[in-house]
Design brief:
alpha+beta, Structural Genomics Hypothetical 15.5 Kd Protein In mrcA-pckA Intergenic Region, Chain A, single chain, three-stranded antiparallel β-sheet, nine-stranded mixed β-sheet, 3 domains, Pseudouridine synthase, 6 helices
Length: 299
């Protein structure tokens, strides 16, 4: 894997943690083991990257896992020998990172079963794709590498899988539907945020349909044609209708529940049996109760 630096004067370990799937602690271990080269040479974690530096991450790094299995209630919608479909609650991080190594979905999955794919390394067994900590709903897990590889191709090529989200956005959206086609990249002012930008961005397309209009809010369905980090949250904020209770992309004070965004439906071709699969997950109670209160206001 090669990365071309587009920013100046940031520590090498921090830059890679912000621009790869690896945690900062893993980056440090890879640097110490010589698996990361900058312009062909080994550098320390404190090296300040420069514009047009070429960083190469070599294959073959094996990290001893610090992740421990943790007993937790996992809402398993479906399971067979190859895959699992999970209904993730809001507030649960999908995989370890950023100092959280004990209370993630991966910890729970490792306690539940020893049959998880290892394509994504020690920190992400079984994890084919992610949804944000405070986004709830359907998530696919691979139990073996064959299923994982096929599902990864589905996501990469945007085929054989369809994901639909429900979101409550702030404001009265004036149309019945919309397509947001706006490229997304990291926000240069805040590396933890994503933003619509022409610089170092990737194509991002969200198809939105209005489900119901309330006083000051709109309930919408969002179907992803692409799957960028924070895509729906960024796109809703970009068009001026941020997701309600979003602590990152909405300026209003958020409750602990986080953004009202739920992965509601998932349709895909089973990676092994090739059967058509369809799953739905009801809105979380907190989300549903708020919607019910808005319905009462309309009466």
């Amino acid at each position: 894997m090669k990365i071309k630096v587009v920013e100046n004067q940031e520590r090498l370990d921090k830059y890679l943690a912000n621009n790869t799937e690896h945690s900062r602690s893993t980056i440090m271990k890879m640097l110490d083991a010589g698996f990361i080269k900058v312009n062909g040479s080994q550098e320390k974690a404190s090296y300040k990257v420069k514009l047009d530096d070429e960083i190469e991450i070599l294959d073959g790094f094996k990290e001893e896992s610090d992740i421990v299995p943790v007993a937790m209630d996992i809402d398993i919608i479906y399971e067979d020998d190859d895959i699992m479909v999970i209904n993730k609650p809001s507030g649960l991080v999908v995989h370890p990172g950023s100092g959280n190594y004990d209370n993630t979905l991966v910890n729970g999955l490792m306690h539940y079963t020893n049959n998880l794919s290892d394509i994504n390394g020690e920190e992400r067994p079984g994890i084919v794709h992610r949804i944000d900590k405070d986004t709830s709903g359907l998530l696919l897990v691979a139990k073996n590498n064959k299923a994982h590889a096929i599902l990864t191709e589905y996501f990469k090529n945007h085929e054989n899988i369809r994901r639909e989200y429900i979101a409550l956005i702030c404001g009265n959206f004036p149309h019945d539907s919309a397509t947001i086609d706006a490229p997304i990249g990291r926000d240069p002012k805040d590396r933890k945020r994503m933003t619509v930008t022409a610089d170092n961005s990737k194509e991002a397309i969200t198809n939105m349909k209005v489900l119901k209009k309330y006083n000051g809010y709109t309930l919408v369905s969002c179907i992803l044609k692409t799957g960028r980090t924070h895509q729906i949250r960024v796109h809703m904020n970009y068009i001026g209708y941020p997701i309600y209770n979003d602590p990152v992309y909405n300026t209003k004070k958020a409750t602990e529940f986080g953004q009202f965004l739920h992965s509601y439906k998932m349709d895909f071709i089973h990676p092994i049996t090739k059967k058509e699969m369809h799953f739905e997950a009801p809105l979380p109670e907190y989300f549903q109760n708020f919607i019910d209160s808005l319905d009462k206001d309309l009466q």
